[in-house]
Amino acid sequence: MSEEQKIVEISMHCRGGQTCITASQLLTEMAFEEGFKDTIAIPIIGAERRGAPIQAFAKISKSKSIKTYDSVVNPDYILLFDTSLLDIPKIKETIKEGTTLIVNSPESIDTTDLPKNIKIFIVDATGICIQRNFMHSSGPILNIPMLGAFGKVTGYYDLNIMEKVIKKEFGEGRLEKNMRVAKDAFETVREV
Fold first, then answer.
1. Rounded CA gap, 42 and 28, in Å?
2. Are 77 and 154 in contact, with CB atoms under 8 Å apart?
3. Is 1 among the domain residues?
4. What number of other Cβ atoms are within 10 A of residue 69's Cβ?
5. Measured between alpha carbons, how far apart are the two ends of the chain, in Å?
6. For the segment 13-47, what is each residue's pLDDT rounded down to a tens digit?
7. Number of domains in the chain
8. What is the chain's percent helix, strand, coil content, to nearest 5?
9. At CA 28, angle to CA 32 and CA 67, rounded to 5?
C-alpha cells in the first residue's frame, strides 16, 4: 500500500504534564490544514497525575476516511517525550521494525534492546524549552517542539501550517513564543 493510501498511525508517550494529549490534537489539526483527508486524535484519559506515564494517539490519512477509533498498537511513528519511558516493557514492545522513533533527548539513546530496522531521530526539546523559557509550573511544555521535529522528519506539514494552527488554538499573544520553539526543533532534529 502506498503512503498516499494508508492510514498513518502515531503513538505519543509522555509523563503527566508533558503535554502529549494536546500534541495529538494539534498534530491532527496540522495534518488536516495541510490537506490530509481525515485525521483523528485519540487521547487516553484516566486517573493520570503529574509524572505518571501517559499515552495519546493520532491517525491521519491522505486519501480515505478513518473508521477506527481504537488506540494504536502498530505505530508508524512514535514520539517519545521522556527517554525513561523506554524502561516500560509495554512501551518498548510497540517499537517494531519499520517504526520511526522521534525522541526528546540531547544525545543518542541506547538502542541495545530495540529492533534493528527502525529510524531514530533525536531533538533536545527539553533543552529548547529551557533555553526559550517555554515552561509551565511543572516543567517544559514539550508538545510544540516535538511537533516541530515531527513535521520536519515526516514532511507532513511545515512551519507555516504550525503557525496557522497555533495562532488559531492559542491566539496571537502566544504565537511568537510557540513558533520560536517549533522552529528550533524543526531546525535541530537529527537522525542517529
1. 10
2. yes
3. no
4. 9
5. 27
6. 998 878 899 999 999 999 999 999 999 999 877 65
7. 1
8. 40, 25, 40
9. 90
